[in-house]
Specification:
191 residues, 3 domains, Arc Repressor Mutant, subunit A, three-stranded antiparallel β-sheet, alpha+beta, 18% strand, 5 helices
């Protein structure tokens, strides 16, 4: 579902409930990129109704007997089955995709000249040092170490790109473990 504000398709459902007349589902959604909220209404497949209309014999009225309903439905299904058979008959002329693929591969094998097999030489790539993937805590600690006079939560959020709650949790944990110290309210330095 695209956000009507920013156009991104990264949205989440906040609330979902049927409408008063039970014909559709009302969903409150929130964009995960711009935090915009909007409402969608979706028709439910189980609410789709079969509408029977009397096509013969006078104005309006209703089909009172079950025989009349069954007669109407059988006539509708006959027309539908005839259309279905016409479509299937046209599709039967085509070969299945797997059979066509096998034929193409067989022709390609016949046309390709035979190649002499040459033993392959082993090429050994130089070993590279594997770079460790830094944990989120290590990323925050690296930013704190880079600021000698101290760094606040706002700068940590900007430098790491983490959410406020995540940065605060990491700072709390690191200060409890003694990895960083608090200089003054909201400012931290490396321990």
């Amino acid at each position: 579902m695209e956000c009507p504000f920013c156009g991104e398709s990264n949205t989440g459902v906040i609330d979902s409930r049927p409408t008063k007349d039970k014909s559709s589902i009302r969903r409150r959604r929130q964009c995960l990129d711009c935090a915009g909220r909007f409402t969608t209404y979706e028709a439910t497949p189980d609410q789709l109704m079969l509408l029977l209309m009397k096509t013969h014999g006078g104005k309006g009225g209703s089909m009172k007997s079950s025989d009349a309903v069954l007669s109407f439905m059988s006539q509708a299904l006959k027309g539908l089955s005839a259309e279905f058979e016409r479509l299937i008959g046209g599709a039967a002329k085509f070969e299945p995709a797997k059979r066509v693929e096998r034929k193409v591969r067989a022709k390609a094998k016949k046309k390709a000249p035979a190649k002499k097999k040459v033993p392959a030489k082993k090429i050994v790539a130089p070993k590279r040092k594997r770079s460790k993937k830094l944990s989120d805590t290590d990323k925050v600690l690296r930013v704190v170490r880079g600021h000698k006079k101290g760094v606040d939560i706002l700068k940590l959020k900007k430098k790491t790109g983490f959410a406020d709650s995540k940065v605060r949790a990491i700072v709390y944990r690191a200060s409890k473990e003694g990895k960083i110290k608090r200089v003054r309210r909201g400012v931290y330095i490396s321990a």
